[in-house]
Structures are given as structure tokens and as C-alpha cells.
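Let's practice the habit of predicting before peeking. Look at the sequence and jot down your guess about where helices and strands might fall. Then scroll down.
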Amino acid sequence: MGATSSTDGGPDAGRSPEPVPEAAVPPAPPGRGPVVAALMVAMALAAVDGTVVSTAVPRIVGDLGGFSVFSWLFSGYLLAVTVTLPVYGKLSDTFGRKPVLVGGIVLFVLGSLLCAGAWSMTALIAFRVVQGLGGGALQGTVQTIAADLYPLEERPKIQAKLSTVWATSSVAGPAIGGLLSTYADWRWIFLVNLPVGALALWLVVRHFHEPARPRPAVRPRIDWAGALTIFCGTALLLTALVQGGVAWDWLSAPSLALFGASAVLVALTVLVERRAADPIVPGWVWRRRPIASVNLALAAMGLLMVAPTVFLPTYAQSVLGLGAIPAGFVLSVMTLSWPVSAALSNRVYGRIGFRFTAMTGMGCALLVLLAFTALPYPGAVWQPVLIMLLLGASLGLFQLPLIIGVQSTVGWAERGTTTASVLFCRQLGQSLGAALFGAVANATLASRLGDAPAAGLPGDLDSVARALEDPGTLTASAADTLRRAVDAAVDHVYLGAAAAAALALLVLVCVTPRDFPAVAEETAAAPADG
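Done guessing? Here is the structure:
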């Protein structure tokens, strides 16, 4: 199967006349359906988990306590996923996709079983980290196998299906979590992962068979020193970003110590990886322009994604006066238009190329984000719904062509590392965005409420949201002041997200090459055996 590459402009954009040869691996036989089902079920494990847990937090806190640290139920999971992505990517390139995916499913299910038996908030957070260690393997490896299975021209099909899993999970997850925590017990939100995980494991073991590869002349050596420094350095950095401005001030001793230690470990990682015979993060990830530019662009997208995913529900509840479920719907419409746009993106990049397609998507996203700041106060519900629908369509047009394009530039032996680097940068961007935009929102609130005529008003976003949940404790004037302050804070966050979109556009214009040179595709994972 000959691969195509994307060029910008001309009727033949997307064709590579001289593909770069790749080590031959037997092509995939027909019958990929069971493997695709396995990938979708495995992805559902990770996709549903976060949304299910969020709705059960009140019941969990009521049972276990630990309100002051419950946010680590999410932060700990996200941290574990992020720091393990590069390691799993390299392992899948070295030892194959199947053992990494099977290990990830087993680890995720084990973490779920431990979470269901947690006896304290501390134990539950620790077991969520175990889940995250498995989740990192699921996210990166599923995306890599999807690229292995399908040639370039067919990859939008499988990517659209995986995007549909995330879209469905964003809608179904909160409903499932609410039902289980209300009519059963919050522990069931973790126990339901067991049969789903067992199904995913059976499908992978039964139907996914990788082609036999030549045995290497030298036994592969795992760069454990590099893995450890990457793990520790990223963990300290994410902890500093998550806790800074929340558990302690940004310029306090704990914050400075964490940032300083993470900087030292990052420098140590560079030294270790340069000397390693087979590094976890090879230097070519940043020396090749297509990969480096996509990493930077996806990091910028991670930044801007914080605005809708973190701050839009607060806006919908505090400014528009919606309940938790309708507020979740305002956000979920973005995930409905995203997979549709992604599925149709091949019709665009087949004509104008990966780079121009991504530029079109991010340009539209920039205009949509700016349009949000022009919404009237308090506005109608349909207005942010339309904004999120357009934003999802824009980002689907941006992200998928870049991921498919960069995956097409590498062969089987480098695809896991490349895919993991892209996902890692996106996750890191989200963590940085949560810290940065949280500081912007709280600074805006402090400024607006500091000049307010009413005394005793709360001064941070969480306190404002809690106050507006119980309007009986506020006068009409105080409630209106708080709503206007939240509206201004979220507007400033969306301005910051628009700046991140502009940064992504700048990367695409100045750094991303016009062409994504494709390798000659003779590689795919072998699916069914009947």
C-alpha cells in the first residue's frame, strides 16, 4: 500500500512521488473489525473514567472525607498518564504494541479494583495513580495501533471512531456516575471497569496479532535511567503547576523548590538521554521539523482547551444560572461536532494538505474564542452552545490532520515514540494552561470584587461558584456583582485561549514544513486470526 504525504497547494497536494522506504513488515490481512472493537473498548476505559468520577465526588467526600485534597483524584490520575506516555511509546516501539496494551489494561483494571476498596481519601488518590499508570499505556498505544492498522488515506475512519468514543463518554459518563452514586454506591463507578476491561483484554489477546519481526542482533536495552528522570522531572513540574496558587502561593518556598528541582531533573534528563544507547526520548523527536512543530502546536492546543473544559461549566452555572447537568450539556456539544469534523477532514487535507488544513481549523478556532468574549451579559444559553459547536468543529479540523500527518512521516519502529511525544505535549499544555488561566481568573475576580461596594464577597473562583450555588445567602446586588465578576474572569480566560490559538497558528506558519514526507507504508499490525 503506497502512502501519501501532504503538500500545501496544487491538485496533487498530498502525494509523495518518492516515499521514504521503511523496513518491510507483512501487510495486514483483512478483518480489522475485532481489533477496532478492541481499541474502542480499551479507549472507553480511559475516556469514561474521568467523567464518571467527577459526578460522584460529593458522595466520595461524604464517605471518605478529605475535601481539601479531593482534586488530586483528577490531578494524580492526569499526572500518572502524562509522565508515562513517553516511556510507553518507546516500549511499544521496542517490544511491540500488544504487550504494552495488555499491560496497560491489566494495570488499569487493577487500579480500578483497588479504588473500589479504598478506605480513605489518601488511599483512593494513590490507587487513582495506579489507574493513571495504566491509562498512559491505553491512550498512547491505542492511537499508535490505529495508525499501524490503516494506511494514510483510511486513517480518518479509525480516528473518527476513537473520537466518537470520547464524545459518547463525555455525555454518558456523568449520567452513569450520577446514577451509580445515587442509587447504588460510589464504589461501583470503579467496579464497572472490571467487565469492560475484561472484554477489552479478551478482544486484544484473541484478535490482535502483530506480525513477526526480525530478531535484533543486539538485545534491546531499556533506558531505565532516562525513564526515571523523565518520570520524576515531569511529576515535580506537574505537581508545581497543579498546586501552585492553590495549596501554596506561586512564590512560596514549596513552589520554588518544586520548580527548581524539576528544572534540575529536566537538565539531567537531557544529559542522560544524550548518552543513552537507545533513549526513551530520542533527539530526533525535536530535530525533525514535522514532529517538533506538531508537538509545539498540540501543546498550544492543550493550553486553549482549558478554557472550555475547565471554565465553561462554571460560566454556565454561575452566569447563565444553569444546573450541573444542563451546564455539562453546553460543554458536551463540542465533543459532538469534533468527531464529525475530524471524519471529514481528509476531504480537506486531500486537497490543500495537512498544514493548510490545520491552519484553517486553528484560524476558525481563534475567531470562535474571540467571539465568546463578545457575548452579551448574561446572554442566552444557545449562544455558548453555538460557540462550543463551532469550536469542536474547528479543533477537529486542526488536530487530526496534524496527528495523521506526523504519523505518516515515521515507520513502525518510530511511530509509538512519535505518537507519545505528541500526546505528552498536549497533556503538558493542558496542565500549564490550568495553572496559567486559573491565575488569570482569580486575578480578575480579585480586581473586580476588591472594588465592589458590597463587603465580604468571596475572592476566588471556587468560593464564588459555591456562593452562587446558594443564592439565598446573597442580596440581589451581591449576586449580580459576583456573576459579572465571573463573566469578566471567563472572558479573560478565553482571551488567553485565543492567544494560545494565535501561538499555534504562528508555529504552523513559521515552523511547520509545507510537506509531511510519508514513508512507504508496508507496515500494519496483523489483526484477526479468524
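How did you do? The radius of gyration is 23 Å.
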